[in-house]
Amino acid sequence: MALISYDCIVVGAGVVGSLIARALSRYRLRILLLDKASDVGEGTTKANTAIVHAGYDAKPGTLKARLNVAGNRLFDQLCAELDVEFDRCGTYVVGLNAEDWGVLQELYQRGLTNGVTGLSLIDAAEMRRREPAISDQTVGALHAATGGIVDPFNLCIGAAESTVLNGVELALETKVTSLVREGKQVVGVVTNKGEFRGQWVIIAAGLWADDLLHKAGLVGFHITPRKGEYFVLDKVAAGLVHNVLFPCPTPTSKGILVTRTIHGNVMLGPNASDSPSKEDLSTTSSGLNEVMAGALRLVPTLDPRTVIRTFAGLRATGSTGDFLIEIPRELSGLLVLAGIESPGLTAAPAIAEYVVDLMREAGLRLAERPDYNPQRVGIPRFSRLSREEQAALIAKDPRYGHVVCRCETVTEGEIVAACHAPIPARTYDALKRRTRLGSGRCQGAFDTPLVIKIMARELGLSPLEVTKKGGHSRFLLRETKEVGA
Amino acid sequence: MRELRCDALVIGSGPAGLAAAYQARRSGAGRVLLIERNNELGGILPQCIHNGFGVRVFSTDLTGPEYAGRWIRQAREAGVEFLPKAMVLAIDKGLTVVAASSQLGLMQVQAKALVLAMGCRERPRGALAIPGSRPAGVYTAGTAQRLVNMEGYMPGSRFVILGSGDIGMIMARRLTLEGAEVVAMVEILPYISGLRRNLVQCVLDYNIPLHLCTTVTNVLGEERVEAVIISQVDERWQPIPGTQQELKCDTLLLSVGLIPENELSRMAGVAIDPVTGGPVLDERYATDVPGIYAAGNAVHVYDLVDDVTESALRAGRYAAEYALRGPAGLSRAIPLLAGDNVRHVVPQRLHLESLHDGALPIQFRVRQPVEEAVRAQLRVGEEVLTSKRLRYVRPSEMVTLELDAERAGRIAQAEALHVHIAH
């Protein structure tokens, strides 16, 4: 049987892989986007700080520095095209002692070298005026006007849906186990769903990128999972914290920050500790204590009683300190992305363009498709609409009048829409990332029984088959005892 | 947008909302609307299929659905109009409420008085920041109760219950009767946080191991819960190294506290008591926003439904009075404050005139249990206005003192009244 041959196979549908597939989808190419998880963006994309960095952190001359600054500039247009929430609200690095003031000046200079615009150093009084809850130890801050906050889940979902709408084939629950080689040429991938042939294989496998490289005989690069733990606070805390507040950076991370999120919560974190496992997303008591202590140094009046959730993510920290994005000399037909840690989310749109450039230089013929459509429309967000728009939406589809998640005001209409989107939500967590369902102060206590019923109906499942996140993560194990006849 | 007008709008159709709406009509309010977000009326009562409801109000021991049924009938007969399957989105200035419903679309209700009866929610896992993985199989006790009693599904087969709230204890029995195994109930405090009768009838009678001074310090399992680690804690609630024990289970139920639901109250500009999490009330159960009243678990979490109902009758009566006659023009309010070993007091403010309408129940909880006879006292300075002897006091059991008009003359000039526990 002849195997279908693709022009490009992108391994990994995180924000990087999805944006690469999207950048390629504007050309006449047959593209396959693969991911081992049951949804797109299930790796580092779903658990990070969701900041669009200005670009003053990275060492000048690195790919990190260049792609951070370039990526940042692409966000307004990208998020408008993908119907994703983004707020270029500016960010602050806050100095808490005399030594920090020196660091701030250094960051300011580095930012200028990296080509960052909109940087300014402000004094303590000005910082307090802009953020009254800031520590009274504050000596001043670096303000980066181009920094911002974004919805990282829907950026990835939006990018991946855009590729699907433009003809990319998406295969979820498809895990690449090895690369197919013919001599020095990579010609495809072997997966749990069979073999796929492609002229180009692009590895955007996040934490697992080095494992795939090692299997292909490229042993020079290693990824160390570095865990970061977070708290999410109730929206009431947004009355206290109005900005994105970084402390001065440490050698291993940008430090434990206190930030408003695009969804109106406050988030604290992350710490940074090397993890022995690429799959261990558990939080730890010591890590959480460290995060709370760090956050309280910046904003001492934070109320730990307003915590509604904790989570952890893993950074794909590479052995060289920089992003690895290259076509290895040893093999052709392969493009590798590895070590895409912070500022990976910010850099992702520029990484995608850079990848296209590398492939063009390597001889890939790129002819524009006349029917390429960059616009993608997400599901309606009832809570974000004006009252007139809400009334009109309910009049059109009464399911938008049924509020299922009371904390985040998510309606049945949105759940139904997400279950039938170009990339359908098939698990509770997938729905949560698309709609904010269960993300509020009750954490799904009220909505879960209702959502299970709606999901079962829309996805054609028994309620017993509805899962939280695929696999064995079922909510319900059996029916209650039968009533006697 | 559909526009409605009414004398009184009650938000939430649990026991508080039903009684408040009923009483508002009985007290003369014209059109009384009761808005409920769920399909069924009764709030949490329909899923509370155990008994223990209405012993004082109806002098008979009813189940939750039966208690709800009686009040739904009484409210309907009193002329209350029900608006089920409608969610309040906002309370705007001037007692204007915006709500959404599939049947009626977006609507704006202009009320002359409002009663907030949104009840409470359960504290979730995140609020405790329990470390570990985040698999399926972690539920609040109330969610599990709904799944079992209303939807007919078992959310697990081997349960560990963290916390000893009443719903957790009641679910321990319910799950056991459904053939599940309840491996343990663990409570961080040295005493249970629910009622003693539930401990006996739902936990001890079913031989469910109870671990006091113990908490869950880790959750294991990637897709579904596989086990939890429990550890004993010291007096500062810190886990004691070396006391860890792994309990195999597929489900962790949380019964770790209830939080009054007051997002709408905040939206309306109502002052919230930081201790109760509910509105600051006067003796009429009026909030500090004219025309807005509150009752039930939205004010502070009650032990017994009968107390919820009685609080709501008071709120409904005065809400109707406000709708019909406007502000009562009351004199200065005297603060009611928590004294020795008292955590909070409801109501928080007192206008003496209202005492002529009848005695006022002053409700409070203690901070620390005392397992010997004590006196609960309402004092002005050192003078005891009213007091009550109690065989013991426990944080899990609300205490009520009554203040009547007879004593009002003695406190006309008082700057504040204090509730104390005296030995």
Describe the structure.
- The complex is a heterodimer of chains A (485) and B (423).
- Chain A is an alpha+beta fold and 485 residues long.
- Chain A is built from 12 helices and 23 strands.
- Chain A folds into 3 domains: 1-87 and 148-222 and 319-378, FAD/NAD(P)-binding domain (3-Layer(bba) Sandwich), CATH 3.50.50.60; 91-145 and 225-318, 2-Layer Sandwich (D-Amino Acid Oxidase, Chain A, domain 2), CATH 3.30.9.10; 382-465, Arc Repressor Mutant, subunit A (Orthogonal Bundle), CATH 1.10.10.
- In chain A, the strands form 4 sheets. In chain A, strands 5, 6, 7, 13, 14, 15, 16, 17 and 18 form a 9-stranded mixed sheet that branches.
- In chain A, a hairpin with a 2-residue loop joins strand 10 (176-182) and strand 11 (185-191).
- Chain A is globular and about 65 Å long.
- Chain B has 423 residues and is an alpha/beta fold.
- Chain B has 3 domains: 1-122 and 258-329, FAD/NAD(P)-binding domain (3-Layer(bba) Sandwich), CATH 3.50.50.60; 124-256, FAD/NAD(P)-binding domain (3-Layer(bba) Sandwich), CATH 3.50.50; 330-423, no CATH class.
- Chain B is built from 8 helices and 28 strands.
- Chain B starts with a strand and ends with a strand.
- At the A-B interface, helix 7, strand 18, helix 9, helix 12 and strand 23 of A face strand 7, helix 3, helix 4, strand 11 and strand 15 of B.
